[in-house]
Design goal:
mainly beta; Immunoglobulin-like; six-stranded mixed β-sheet; binds copper (II) ion; oxidoreductase; copper ion binding; oxidoreductase activity
């Protein structure tokens, strides 16, 4: 009402011509908006429905429980057929593209031996792992060509979906793009007792979602010369397959989503906007499943979702490509936002239905209290820098204390923010308390604006092996949108 009166007052002061011009502009804006909404509604009503013909590639599982001796990972160049019969030059861990899924268990240690067969240095960051700086795999931790990095990962954190990828300053974007990425899955006694879908590749399926360009079926290599500001490509690639399908039992099916793209964010949804459940954020299970119909994810983020396949023959997961910044917009109403298929789930009655119920209680999360905060820090992301500073390997940007509760304010704008060494809880997103589906442990956040997070570090990161905080658009990270800190 107040607003209406104010507008009326403004109009009264207009001269005739100015008022007509304002009316014309308003008409034009309205027409454009209606056109945009109609266009986007049309797009929403007709997502790509071409039947998937390629079986989903599921990364090989290496279960640390059944492993004798260290897990051996060879980092090397290779070839991969994204389209059947057409090979592209790629890199991979123990294969042509991506790497095996390594399953680890809370309370146990996992030995891994990474050998670099590339002709350039690389390294391995355990994204999401709660480990000391020395084995976190930040830019200080180089594996030179021909060298082997033997690492023992003591797993102390709860069940969660994490990943490993290169993290050298200046070559992360190119190396991840070539295919270097894999899953670290952590389970614990509690997660295994819940009856959640957990038969790997059958009803518990990891999906790394990326975008790539292709010419005649061949993947376009990472641009040589000057690095692009952020690489967004045309075709959605899921576990190295395009428009794939997979057979699943007629029961609940868990999809562990990882946005492994260099720069692109997506909004995931099921065909027909069917509901699904989000059961986990990056650092662990949510307190209980949250029913949602859309899920936005920025590069580096993981979310576990569950789809009910008990009463449906066929279900298609789709991804809407989000623009660089969608602040304030409902992504579904953004005109001309493109959707591409992620995965077609086909119910197969001959597969044993393993998870016929979804537990209502999943996890206990004891929230941090703002009144217990001992230190506050602010991170402003912008202009390829954080707080006006670019990454300098010789500069430690701040020092955190072991076990101290910190509140970080992330003014991230259009940049997804990630920090190493621990998981945080969201205190606020753009001034609002987090939605139920965001009230879980995380290590990457994309508020499209500003967020406040609460966090504690439980492991040491000295000057030689500091932790990083950075933008997870890999080009931005490579260009210096990163800082480092110690924990003592
Ligand atoms: Cu960025």
């Amino acid at each position: 009402m107040t607003c209406f009166r104010h507008k009326k007052g403004v109009f009264k002061r207009q001269k005739g011509f100015a008022r007509r011009r304002v009316n014309f502009v308003m008409l034009l804006v309205s027409a454009l908006l209606i056109t945009a909404i109609v266009a986007s509604t049309a797009l929403r009503a007709s997502p790509p429905t071409s039947a998937a013909v390629t079986p989903l590639n599921v990364p090989t599982l290496i279960d640390s429980k059944t492993q004798n001796g260290p897990i051996v990972i060879d980092i090397k160049e290779g070839e991969h057929a994204f389209y059947p019969g057409v090979k592209s030059k790629t890199s991979g861990y123990n294969g042509g593209y991506l790497g095996p899924t390594i399953k680890m268990y809370k309370g146990e240690s996992t030995d891994i031996s990474f050998t670099n067969h590339l002709d350039e240095p690389t390294n391995i960051h355990g994204h999401g792992l709660h480990v000391v700086g020395k084995i976190d795999g930040g830019p200080q931790n180089k594996i030179l060509p021909g060298e082997t990095w033997n690492v023992t990962i003591p797993v102390s954190q709860q069940a969660s979906t994490n990943w490993y990828h290169p993290h050298l300053k200046g070559s992360t974007a190119k190396q991840v793009h070539s295919g270097l990425a894999g899953f670290y899955l952590i389970e614990d006694g509690h997660s295994l007792s819940l009856g959640l879908p957990n038969t790997y590749g059958v009803d518990d399926i990891p999906l790394v979602i990326q975008d790539r360009n292709f010419v005649d079926g061949k993947m376009t290599p990472y641009p040589a010369g000057n690095m692009p500001e952020d690489l967004r490509e045309d075709t959605l690639v899921v576990n190295g397959t395009i428009n794939p399908y997979t057979l699943v039992p007629k029961s609940f099916v868990r999809l562990r989503l990882l946005n492994g793209s260099n720069a692109r964010s997506y909004e995931f949804y099921l065909e027909g906007e069917q509901p699904f459940y989000k059961i986990a954020t990056e650092g662990g299970l949510l307190p209980s499943p949250v029913e949602i119909t859309t899920l936005k994810m920025a590069p580096g983020e993981r979310n576990d979702i569950v789809v009910d396949m008990s009463v449906i023959e066929n279900q298609k997961l789709l991804a809407r490509f989000l623009p660089k910044s969608y602040n304030g917009f409902n992504a579904a109403l953004i005109p001309f936002s493109e959707s591409q298929p992620v995965l077609e789930l086909r119910a197969d009655g001959s597969l044993e239905a393993l998870a016929s119920e979804l537990p209502t209680q999943l996890n206990t999360i004891t929230p941090y209290l703002e009144k217990d905060v001992e230190v506050e820090r602010v991170f402003e992301l912008g202009d390829m820098s954080i707080n006006g500073q670019q990454m300098n390997m010789k500069v430690i940007n701040h020092e955190s204390k072991l076990g101290q509760l910190e509140k970080w304010t992330i003014d991230s704008g259009r940049h997804p923010f990630h920090m190493h060494g621990t998981s945080f809880l969201i205190l606020s997103m753009n001034g609002n308390p987090p939605a139920p589906e965001d009230q879980g442990w995380k290590d990457t956040i994309y508020p499209n604006g500003s967020a406040e997070i609460l966090l504690k570090f439980e492991y040491e990161a000295p000057e030689q092996w500091p932790y990083m905080y950075h933008c997870h658009i890999l080009e931005h990270e490579d260009m210096g949108m990163m800082g480092q800190f110690t924990v003592k």
